[in-house]
Amino acid sequence: MPGVGVGSARTFLVCFLVMLIVATLFAPLRFYFLRGEKRRAFGYLSDSCFVFGMSLLLGIGYSMIPVIVEEIRIRRHAHKEEEVIVRLTTVDTLKALLCFHIITVTIMWSFKMGFMFFYAALYESTKTMKKNALYYVSFCFMPLSYVAVLLVSFLDCRPLSLTWDLERLFMTGQTCTPIHSRNVNIVYVVLAITSDILLLCIPLHFLGSLKLTSPEKRGVGFVFFFGTLSISAAVARFTILSTRHTYDVNGGGAIASFDKYYWATGLAFLEITMAEIAFVLPAMRKVVFARGERRQRMRIESARRDEIAGWREATRSRTVASAHADHDDGDRLVHGGNTGAHVGVRGGLGTFYWT
Question: How many helices (H) and strands (E) does the chain have?
Answer without folding.
Answer: 13, 2
